[in-house]
Amino acid sequence: MIDTVIFDMDGLLIDSEPLWGIAMREVFATVGVKLSPELTHLTTGLRTKEVVSYWHNFYKWDGKSPEQVVNEIIDSVIAKIIASGQPMEGLHYILGYFKEKGFKMGLASSSPLRLINAVLDHLQIKDRFQAVYSAEFEDYGKPHPAVYLACAKALGSEPLDCLAFEDSVTGMIAAKAARMTTVVVPETHNRKDPRYALANMQLDSLLEFNDAKLSLLTK
């Protein structure tokens, strides 16, 4: 019986993907690496250290260590979120919906914990979650299911009893690999990606989720 919901964060609860893109392009430019928006989209859903490692292996820059670049990106994203981060459409609706249903609620993000905490404080939603997990503490990030499995365990839930909400293909694969019923809410420019067919349900907005949709997923 599905009685638990676990949310991704970036691009699903907060409109942070554009801020990540700007921060990455700005910081990478300091080591002579020019990334287009299309290139930054290639690594959506991965942990920051994995993104930096990916591009470091390709461009082999000098001057700053990958660890320094990681920290500069995270610091920049946190600053941008605090300055201008906006909730995604339907954020408060969906959290209120599942609270009213009595669901256990968790967060499973690829972002580092200090960034997660900054977002939750900024949006004033930290008290909505009984478990908050970052993939930075797992051996493998998404698309590996580790962070979802850890979050479910912390909530005292079996994976098959969990509903996962994601916005990226990488995150969707992680949730499906954890054997969770998965709802995807992709960004507008990604909605026609055929890989989202792997999800149990695709929505254009969190506002579209309702009792009828929940019933379809729990039959």
Automatic annotation (TrEMBL):
CDD domains: HAD_BPGM-like. Pfam families: Hydrolase (PF00702). This is Sugar-phosphatase. NCBIfam families: HAD-SF-IA-v3, PRK10826.1. It comes from the Bacteria. Signal peptide: none annotated.
